[in-house]
Structure formats: structure tokens, C-alpha cells
């Protein structure tokens, strides 16, 4: 029987990209009793749209398509898109109105994402094994 001691070192990538996304929302189309409420709703929607764009860049999109053909004639044609993922560490760069549209700019620094990941998961690789 051997007893062993394993030393681990942490793996770190060579570079960290910064991913950027912009979300838009129309001001006048938002529900609300006055302009201030409409602006707050547009701000929220534009932020969610920016997060969705970040999620698309990180995880990709799941696309499904369906088409019905009858007698060599297209009867029904549909396309569905779905985005699913968790974004941690994104930062709002700025939010602003452009005419009747509200825009929110986000950035996701992958160095920050890596640091958040390391604190939770602590991935390791074997550095050295010593047998006794």
C-alpha cells in the first residue's frame, strides 16, 4: 500500500476577451401613465435585450424550423429562436436615449468571469504526486 500527496496548480487562460452588447427599446411603445414611467420601462427592456445579446454571444442560439408542404406548395413556414444561459459579471457601460429609443450598453470582461468562476469551482490540474 502506498500513501500519496497530490499538489495542484490552477489553470489560467492566456487571454481574456471583453464582450460588448447593446440593447434597444422604443420609448413611446412602453406601457405607463407618463413619460417617466415609459422611460423606466424602456431602460429595463433595453438592459434585458443587451443581456440577451450577451447570452447569444456566450452560449449561442438554439434555432428550430418547421415547414409544412402540401401538393408541392408551402402551407406553413416557421422559425423559432431560443437563448438560454447565465451571465455573471456583466457591467452596464451606459444607458441613454436616442430619439424615441432607449439604449443600454453592457460589457462582459471574461477576466472577471474567470475570477468569479475560480472562487466557486476552484478547477485544478495535478502539479505533482509524491508517493510515500
Features:
Flagellar biosynthesis protein FlgP, 132 residues, 44% strand, 2 helices, two-stranded antiparallel sheet, alpha+beta, FlgP
Q: Kindly report how far apart the N and C termini lie.
A: 9 Å
Mean of pLDDT: 89
Q: Summarize the helix and strand pattern as letters.
A: EEHEEEEHE
Strand content: 35-45%
Q: Shape, please?
A: flat
What is the number of beta strands?
7
Count, helices: 2
* Integer-rounded radius of gyration: 24 Å
- Fraction of residues in helix: 25-40%
What does the secondary structure layout of this molecule look like, with pairings?
Elements: E1 4-9, E2 18-26, H1 35-59, E3 62-70, E4 73-82, E5 91-98, E6 101-109, H2 110-121, E7 125-131
Antiparallel strand pairs: 1-7, 2-6, 3-4, 5-6
Organism: Pseudoalteromonas aurantia 208
Protein name: Flagellar biosynthesis protein FlgP
InterPro entries: FlgP (IPR007293)
Quick summary:
With 132 residues, the protein is α+β, with helices and mostly antiparallel strands.
Task: Please explain how this structure is put together.
InterPro entries: FlgP. It comes from Pseudoalteromonas aurantia 208. This is Flagellar biosynthesis protein FlgP. The chain is an alpha+beta fold. The protein has one domain. The chain is built from two helices and seven strands; from the N terminus they run ββαββββαβ. It has helices at residues 35-59, 110-121; strands at residues 4-9, 18-26, 62-70, 73-82, 91-98, 101-109, 125-131. Strands 2-6-5 form a three-stranded antiparallel beta sheet. It has a two-stranded antiparallel sheet with strand order 1-7. The mean pLDDT is 89.
Amino acid at each position: 500500500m502506498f500513501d500519496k500527496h497530490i499538489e495542484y496548480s490552477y489553470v489560467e487562460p492566456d487571454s481574456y476577451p471583453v464582450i460588448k452588447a447593446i440593447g434597444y427599446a422604443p420609448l413611446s411603445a412602453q406601457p405607463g401613465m407618463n413619460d417617466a414611467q415609459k422611460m423606466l420601462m424602456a431602460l429595463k427592456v433595453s438592459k434585458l435585450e443587451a443581456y440577451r445579446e450577451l447570452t447569444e454571444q456566450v452560449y449561442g442560439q438554439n434555432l428550430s424550423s418547421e415547414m409544412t408542404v402540401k401538393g408541392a406548395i408551402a402551407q406553413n413556414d416557421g422559425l423559432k429562436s431560443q437563448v438560454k444561459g447565465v451571465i455573471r459579471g456583466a457591467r452596464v457601460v451606459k444607458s441613454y436615449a436616442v430619439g424615441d429609443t432607449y439604449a443600454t450598453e453592457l460589457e462582459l470582461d471574461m477576466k472577471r468571469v474567470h475570477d468569479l468562476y475560480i472562487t466557486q469551482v476552484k478547477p485544478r490540474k495535478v502539479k505533482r504526486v509524491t508517493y510515500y
